[in-house]
Amino acid sequence: MSQHAVLDPQAHRDLRVAMQPDAELGDAVMSCVTVPVEFRQVQAHFPILFHKNPADDRFHAVALFGFENGENLFLKDGQWDALYRPLALAIQPFLIGRSADGEGPAQVHIDMAHPRAGHVDGVRLFDDAGEATPYLEDTAGKLGLLDAGYRECADFFAALKAYDLLEPFTLEVELDDGARRSLVGFHIINEDRLRTLDAAALGELHTAGHLMPIFMALASLSHLTDLVARKNRQSVHA
Questions:
Q1: Cβ–Cβ < 8 Å for 201, 193
Q2: If exposure means fewest CB atoms within 10 Å of the residue's CB, which of 45, 123, 132, 148 is most exposed?
Q3: How far apart are CA 16 and CA 123, in angstroms?
Q4: Which residues contact 207 (CB under 8 A, 6 or more apart)?
């Protein structure tokens, strides 16, 4: 269960946070949420898929790391085997907190129940003078970027819906050892539909800043083949 607290230089002066990639520290996940503002970086390494929350029918984007729950094919020998770490993973165990109405200044919160929080071998958040360490300053910057990305998502997905640019996606994979894996319940950009949009529609998407993330999401799908290759290599060395 989460235990959120407003980050405080007095209460948390000696608190340390683990930075290293580790399954036991929360990295054993097949995907994490990503936002359009980072699609350019994400698409260089991971497939970007879209998932609908059945509770409210809202879409969100995910960076895909594996084919089944708890599988992260980018965790390798205690290292993160990619040059980019999506923001939603990179900021753990921190989050942005706001008032109940969502307005007012944002505050940095920390989940004290997260396995990264209070780790004896972790990095300090504040120095002896109570000032933020470079690690905390960097994390705060990532939190701000992620928070801004979340706030822009509503317009992005509204545009995808308006132009009917999402289509269901299912992937059936047969591995080298004969095992089968399936990806179901996801959506991708409908490339054929995108091609049929007229100049006015494309201009509106471009002006709103949505066209580039759309292209980045499409480009990212080439990494599905890479992900299968990672799975096959893992199976050989298992």
A1: no
A2: 148
A3: 5
A4: none
pLDDT tens digits along 34-46: 999 999 999 999 9
pLDDT level of residue 110 (50, 70, 90 thresholds): very high
- Number of domains comprising the chain: 1
Tokens of 103: 């307005």
The gap between the terminal CA atoms of the chain, to the nearest Å, is: 32
Torsion over CA: 153, 155, 161, 163 (sign) = negative
CA distance 145 to 38: 9
Residue with tokens 């008032």: 99
Other C-beta atoms closer than 10 Å to the C-beta of 230 total 18
DSSP-derived secondary structure for 143-180: HHHHHHHHHHHHHHHHHHHHTT-EEEEEEEEE-TTS-E
93 touches 7 (CB < 8 A): no
Rounded to 5 degrees, what are φ and ψ at 107? -125, 145
When pLDDT is averaged across residues 16-27 and rounded to a whole number, the result is 94
Cα distances (angstroms) measured from residue 195 to each of 43, 138, 201: 20, 39, 11
Both structure tokens of 2: 């989460």
Which letter, b or e, does each residue of 130-146 get, where b requires 16 or more Cβ atoms within 10 Å of its Cβ?
eebeeebeebbebbebb
Give the domain extent around 48.
4-237
